[in-house]
Amino acid sequence: MLLRRRKMWDASFAIAGLLALACGLITLLALLVDMAGDGIPRLSWAFLTNFPSRLPEGAGILSAWVGTTLVMLVTAAAAVPLGVAAGIYLEEYAPRNWLTALIEINIANLAGVPSIIYGLMALGLLVYRLQLGQRILTAGLTLALLILPMVIIATREALRTIPSYIREAAAAIGATKWQTVRDHLVPYSLGGTLTGVILGLSRAIGETAPLITIGALTFIAFLPQPPLQPTFPFLSLQWLWDGFTVMPIQMFNWVSRPQAGFHANAAAAGLVLMGMTLAMNGLAIYIRYRFRKRIHW
Length: 297
Description:
The protein has about 300 residues and is mostly helical.
C-alpha cells in the first residue's frame, strides 16, 4: 500500500512537471509566432546593413548589432579569465574559514542582484569616478560585473563534478597542486565551465537597464572604429572609446514610437536577438556534450 502511494505521488509529480513545461513552451511558442508574424516581412539584408532612420521602411540594425558584438567581446574578455580564475582559487586553493564562507555567500547573493544595481554602480564608479565615460569599454565592464558571479559559480560547480580520486592519483605520482589543476581539473571541467560562461553571456546580451543607466545612445548612425587596421600595428583599440548602442536599446526605441512600421522593426530585431541567444545556448549544449563524450574517468 505504501509503495503504491509513493508511485502515485511520483506519477503526479511527473505529470505536474510536464504540465508546467508545456505551459512554458506554449507561452514561448505563442510569443515567437506573434513576433515572427510581425518581424519576418522586415528581415532582409538591407535591414541588417542599414543604420537607424526616422523612416521605418529604411531603418536597420547595423549600428545595434555591431555595438552588441563589440560590447560582448569586452564582456567576455573581462569576465571569463577573472571568473574562471576566481572559481579555481575558491574551490581548490582557498582555506576553509569564515572569510571564504563570507565571500561565497556574497558571490551567491550577487548572482541574484537586479541588473539595474550594476548599472548604478558602474555609473558611479566607472563613468564618474574613473572617468571612463559612456563608451563601449564601460558597457563591457558593466556587463562583465553582472555575469561575473555566474561564471565563478559555474566554474566551481564544474570542478566539484570531478571525482576526488583524480586529485589523489595526481598527488600520488608527485604532481604539484598547480600541475593537477592545469593538466587535469581544468581540462575535465572545461565543458561545464564553458556552458556557464555562454549562459552568462546569453543573459548579458539581452540586458538593457544597466546600459541605459551608464548612458548608452538610443539613436546612432555611425560605427565604431574598426579593430583591424590596414597599416601597422594593424590592431586598434580606439573602438573601446567610441559611443555605442545595442540591440535591446534599439528595440526599446522603436517600440516607444507610435508608428506600426517601427513596431515591425522591433519585432524583426527581436527575432535576430532571439536567434543569437538560442545559438549561444545551443553552442553551450554542444560543448557540454562533446567534452562529456571525450572524457572518460
